[in-house]
Amino acid sequence: MTILPADWNHPDSERLRRAQRDELDTRYGADTEPGVKPSADDIAVFLMARDENGEAVGCGALRMLGPSEAEVKRMFVAQPARGSGVSTAILRALEAEATARGITTLKLETGPAQPDAVRFYTREGYTRIPLFGHYVHSEGSLCFARDLAADSAADSAADVAADSAAAAAAGSATPPA
Q1: 72 or 168, which is more confident?
Q2: Alpha helices in 29-144 (DSSP H)
Q3: How far, in Å, are 49, 92, 122 from residue 135 at the CA level?
Q4: Which end of the chain is more exposed for a tag (fewer CB within 10 A), N or C?
Q5: Torsion angle, CA of 136/90/100/121, rounded to 10 degrees?
């Protein structure tokens, strides 16, 4: 699988976003998306996942909310590719893009008719937050966030601890001179 930046208006991008919209309309009974719909003009990056045959199987985007915050938008994986790790790979690629751009917090909105999304984001380290931005008055919204800076600091501390433990273990295995 490859995950690369893609043009928002590429036919595969449009097909995946249309499939996502169709699925959400089915779950909610209509287009109930609150706020401003994302567009090529307000998306900082759009990533597309392709399988080993080059078929577009998933996508995700970042929309800037401020200098150090962005919103995850249009996360979607085609039905045949679900359960294969595509969604996690896309999310990690979006987080890497965010970190490279100096973004320290990612936020997102989902809804109660998407328990699979709620489980996924919770499993991936996102925590429930109060409604934000366009979603403040949206009774059908559930919002989540992840502090990438805190996660990065924790990862760095864990790496240092692991390196120290490995060095200590290697040192203790060395016979005295």
Answers
A1: 72
A2: 86-100, 115-123
A3: 28, 24, 19
A4: C
A5: 40
